Sequence to fold (89 residues):
Amino acid sequence: MAFDNKNRRIFIKHKLCRFCADPNLKIDYKEPNTLGVFTSERGKIIPRRISGNCARHQRQLALAIKRARNIALLPFTTAKIKMKEHREF
Ligand SMILES: [Zn+2]
Fold:
């Protein structure tokens, strides 16, 4: 438990890079299950300050997620797009 200069508790949420902690965990664009953990429900990449990744691994992760998106293993977005069913021409 850490305290700030006003003696209040600061909760540190696992400020540990998962990829540094586990050397067996690989950042691979061919593994959407691993990458999917670091994307939000809408498909956005979780920022480093929340995920707790280190700079090096966050960069590798972002690159891998972008590659995975490009070959349709991960979504760019999951926002619903209203399909125009009736075209009035
Ligand atoms: Zn790391």
In short: The first strand starts at residue 2 and ends at 3.
